[in-house]
Amino acid sequence: SMGRKMKPGYRALFYGPPGTGKTLTATLLGQQTGQDVFRIDLSRVVSKYIGETEKNLARLFDKAENKQWILFFDEADALFGKRTDIRDALDRHANQEVAYLLQRIEAYNGLVILATNQRGNIDEAFVRRFQAIVHFPMPGTAEREAIWRQTFPPQIELAADLDWQAVGARPEPRGGSILNISP
């Protein structure tokens, strides 16, 4: 039947520059659904010892299934980047780890979100497995103006001649976060 062919859970890829709301959106999804968001730092899960990464991942996913967490893999391109041609045993082992992680993600019954700054860094074979691919662009002039207008509470007295359009037209912040600049 159709139910047997459909994969469980839901997988989403969030991509865009730093500071555009990928992590915030994952957090808000958790709040809206009443689920905890578990942020996975892949550098702490991946081990140089053969077999340990798979054990770490198995523990993580087994616990997540019981807790019904939303899994949030930040900086996912660190592990889900373009796969390398197998040149030696280390490459083969790295590709096996990725294959195992992908298998666990596809079998997970909950929401899995992978976030990256550069969509092009994620292997296309992985990208095809997502039900949603969401771009988080840098805010444009109009969006920056709206953000600045909402930043100040009404009880704060601002200069009468404050030119909000000029504030919004200022160059995009270098760090990606609108909080890094001030008028």
Unreliable runs, pLDDT <50, ≥5 residues?
A: 1-6
CATH architectural label of the largest domain: 3-Layer(aba) Sandwich
- Biggest sheet, in brief? 5 strands, parallel
Side-by-side strand order of the widest sheet: 2-3-4-1-5
Please state the CA-atom Rg, rounded to the nearest Å: 20 Å
CATH superfamily of the largest domain: P-loop containing nucleotide triphosphate hydrolases
> How many distinct beta strands?
5
Q: What is the total number of structural domains?
A: 2
The gross shape turns out to be elongated
By oligomeric state, this entry counts as single chain
What is the average of the pLDDT values?
80
Order of helices and strands: HEHEHHEHHEHEHH
User: End-to-end span in angstroms?
Assistant: 59 Å
Q: What percentage of residues falls in helices of 4 or more residues?
A: 40-55%
Number of helices: 9
Percentage of β-strand residues: 5-15%
CATH-derived topology of the largest domain: Rossmann fold
CATH class of the largest domain: Alpha Beta
- The SS-based structural class is alpha/beta
